[in-house]
Amino acid sequence: MNVRRSAAVLAAVAVIGAATPAAADPSPSPSQALPSALYGDKDPKFDGVWRQSLALLAQDTVGVKPAAKSVQWLVRQQCADGGFASYRPDPATACDAKTMLDTNATSAAVQALTALGGHDDTTGKAVGWLKSVQNEDGGWGYSPGGASDTNSTSIVIGALAAAGEKPDGVEKDGKSPYDALLKLALPCGGDGDGAFAFQPDKKGELAANADATAAGVLGALGRGMVVKPGEQSDATCAKAATPQQAAANGASYLTSALAEDDDHLMSALAGAEPQPDYGNTADAVVALAARGDTAQAEKSVRWLEKSSASWAAQSGPAAYAQLIFAAHATGTDPRDFGGADLVKQLNATGPAPQTAGETKASDEKEDSGSDFFGLWWYVGICLVAGIGIGFLFTGRKKQRQL
């Protein structure tokens, strides 16, 4: 799922930007180094667990066994109640009421750790926590108690399905996640034409959102981030009386939106010029392939092969993972993706995967001080916003409760 963190970044910048030198060097000092087990070299405050989960899930998808210490780092990020925050710099310190738990990070971790196997206690607690924070309408928001949104509800559905749960049987006050999704689906005809909205606006109106639609199609199908090509299916818009029809409607919208812009989607962040949205395009490929709408999915994955290299290199492990998921969903070789080896590039962003003869004990060694992250991230965030690439955390277009 394409969980965009840009809103959270911009919110942080608005608070601290005036006091932070825009040209300062964001590089951490040795004492403020990133955890050695973490994938990626950018500030993990908003996406540490997310990008780690995607990296590990993508490696498993292509038959790569991740470094044991990277898996252990993810496991240690869990709070005692089962939830995950976006990032905990010191996992030895217990979570408390101030720890901002994150349904998206928790769901991504469940999908990754379930795929890797051997972490039933961790995933079981995480699923229990997700159930405990389900909203009365059957859905989930990004943070516990937040209004349900399509993206969060859909990624939780993916986690439930990965863990062996039946999402339609996970109810709150008689409402399932699918009830929440159907309320966020736009009718056919007019603006939106079968798309999903992220959330209703202040007036209760729904507006089409391609990012939410890609997530909503997967959620309505009960699928997670990793899919195989589905059976050939026509995406025809009709009244969304069932999750399956809502998925078909969303797929129809995505197909049209992709075709309008030469097989990719566009992003228009507040205050920024419209530009190609590589992450959302990759997510749309996965959603369409899961439904069997392979014609447009294959056209769009070809566009990604030609166009996404610079974005992925700049964005890091989550971006490589999204491209690997898109390649996998369409039967494309991720080791020859437009001439690039996505697997090798992903592996290079973190600890080397396990190899024959490598001992688990040596791989699990951690630098005791490496989990403490200094104040340099404030400067880094402002610098990122200043050059117009605040979307690089590859997270959803949504406001996070700060």
From TrEMBL:
UniProt organism field = Streptomyces variegatus
Question: Which InterPro entries would you find in this protein's record?
Answer: Prenyltrans, Terpenoid_cyclase/PrenylTrfase
Q: Where is the Prenyltransferase alpha-alpha toroid domain?
A: 52-162
**Keyword set, alphabetical order:** Membrane, Repeat, Signal, Transmembrane, Transmembrane helix
Instruction: Specify the signal sequence span.
Output: 1-24
Protein name, UniProt field: Prenyltransferase alpha-alpha toroid domain-containing protein
- Region described as Disordered: spans on this chain: 347-367
Keyword presence, Thylakoid: no
GO MF, any single term: catalytic activity
- Presence of keyword Lipid biosynthesis: no
Q: Which residues cross the membrane?
A: 375-394
